[in-house]
Specification:
ATP-binding, ABC_transporter-like_ATP-bd, EC 3.6.1.3, about 30% helix, about 375 residues, alpha/beta, globular
Length: about 375
């Protein structure tokens, strides 16, 4: 077993990395990722009426998530509401303590850093929030909002901070005369630019965007997404981009990880994921994306029911109660998240076989019956 991470550009570099997190037949390795998330879990206790009794149930919001992001790339995290995307982001930023698992930033485990090292690591990771109205303090001027992280980390003198704010405003396409104004004087897109300027203040390496454009009008979304792309190029930023909207994901991402009920069910580079999705859940998500060209339209797959409760996730494959290709094994066993082609990982008993393994399986037969062939939609 080896960890066959392939870089976004497809270059395969051999470095010695921990083995065994992903099941794989290939032996390709990548350069050190900026962020390496390993078997991350967050289980929130469900409080009973009796406050003194320990919780018996847990919300398994994140339940064994592994992924990596290489420097300078954008990994999009997609999935229905409640699949655990925001919790994953908050765990990475240590706004929440993980129940289990490890987060490595530039090769160092965040859980093992002392307070001062953690403080330094925090400077390197910033967040852009979904709601540009709620995320900015209405009592502070734009200058105070953007300079706040600099002040907290004691960076520069007041004059230097003021100069930096002007530079940041310029970088995000706002004028320095805006510095003395308050958030309510700006449009949604402008406010999001202020949020981006604040996120850039400490020269971070990683920016986590939690639905950063979903509250904006479509025309403004495009401007903010273009800005984020330009900034990435200019400053070599690495993004973890959380989004519902797959058209946005297709525009911004290099690779995509699909989350369902606390786990990642599929991860691949953008082209592979959008053109050859394997997991029935990914196929259903993509089938809902509007496509202008009628020749390229996919048949819409309507998933039955809602996402189940993360307190009692279904046994076996978590997706099986809603899956159109479910077989007996899916009810019994959780599928391994394994690499089926270089860089393409899937957790599915039916679709998560390499072509060779699938051929062998079909020869032998497993007694199951696919009800619908949703492959290659
Ligand atoms: N502090 C908490 N205590 C208990 N349960 C929580 C807590 N935070 C999140 N959850 C639960 O964890 C699950 C995952 O939530 P999360 O917000 O991470 O999902 P999401 O994919 O980001 O959804 P959305 O897109 O709606 O934000 C949900 O069932 C949510 O109710």
């Amino acid at each position: 077993m080896s960890d066959p991470a392939i870089s976004a550009t497809g270059t395969k570099k051999v470095t010695c990395r921990e083995k065994g997190r992903f099941e794989s037949d290939t032996v390709d390795y990548t350069a050190s990722p900026l962020l390496d998330v390993r078997e991350l879990k967050k289980h929130f206790p469900v409080r009973t009426k009796d406050l003194f009794r320990p919780a018996r149930d847990f919300v398994r919001a994140v339940d064994g998530v592994s992924f990596f992001i290489n420097p300078g790339e954008t990994l999009a995290l997609v999935g229905e509401s409640g699949s655990g995307k925001s919790t994953t982001a908050r765990l990475i930023l240590r706004l929440l303590e993980p129940t289990a698992g490890e987060i490595l930033f530039e090769g160092r485990s965040l859980g093992r850093l002392g307070p001062e090292m953690m403080r330094q690591a925090r400077k390197q990771m910033q967040m852009i929030f979904q709601d540009p109205y709620a995320s900015l303090n209405p009592r502070l001027t734009v200058e105070e909002i953007i300079a706040e992280p600099l002040q907290i980390f004691h960076v520069g003198s007041p004059v230097e901070r003021s100069r930096k704010v002007s530079r940041l405003l310029d970088i995000v396409g706002l004028a320095s005369r805006h510095a003395k104004r308050y958030p309510h004087e700006f449009s949604g897109g402008q406010r999001q630019r202020i949020g981006i300027a604040r996120a850039l203040a400490l020269n971070p390496k990683l920016i986590i965007g939690d639905e950063p454009v979903s509250a904006l009008d479509v025309s403004i979304q495009a401007q903010v997404l273009n800005l984020l792309k330009d900034l990435q190029e200019e400053f070599g930023l690495t993004y973890l981009f959380i989004a519902h909207d797959l058209s946005v994901v297709e525009f911004v991402s290099d690779r995509v990880a699909v989350m369902y009920l606390g786990i990642i069910v599929e991860m691949a580079d953008k082209e592979t994921l959008f053109r050859h999705p394997l997991h029935p859940y990914t196929q259903a998500l993509l089938s809902a994306v509007p496509v202008p060209d009628p020749d390229c339209r996919r048949e819409r797959i309507i998933l039955p029911g809602d996402i189940p409760s993360p307190v009692n996730p279904p046994a076996g494959c978590r997706f099986h109660p809603r899956c159109q290709v479910c077989r007996e094994v899916c009810r019994r066993e959780a599928p391994v998240f394994r690499e089926v082609k270089p860089g393409h990982y899937v957790a599915c008993h039916i679709r998560g076989q390499g072509s060779e393994a699938r051929g062998r399986k079909e020869e032998v037969g497993d007694g199951g019956q696919e009800t619908v062939d949703g492959g290659g939609t």
